[in-house]
User: Fold this.
Amino acid sequence: MADQAFLDKGVLLGYCFFIDTHHVVCKDYIESSSADFYATKQVEEIFNKKKDSIIESHRQAILSFISRLKSEDYS
Assistant:
């Protein structure tokens, strides 16, 4: 394997979010390598925007689920 590698946002997102369908592959790739990994500034910016979007989506889903739980009649 190469001594250095540039990471795409997809690999970073896959690694950081365990619910991503590629998480295991990305995790194995990053953690089994002795390479130094880098991301360009552009990839970092794209990653941060997408990360924020994913977090917001999860937050909204959780809030919606809590709201539905509160409105249910469990008697």
In short: The two ends are 60 Å apart (CA to CA). The chain has a mean pLDDT of 88. The longest strand covers residues 4-6.
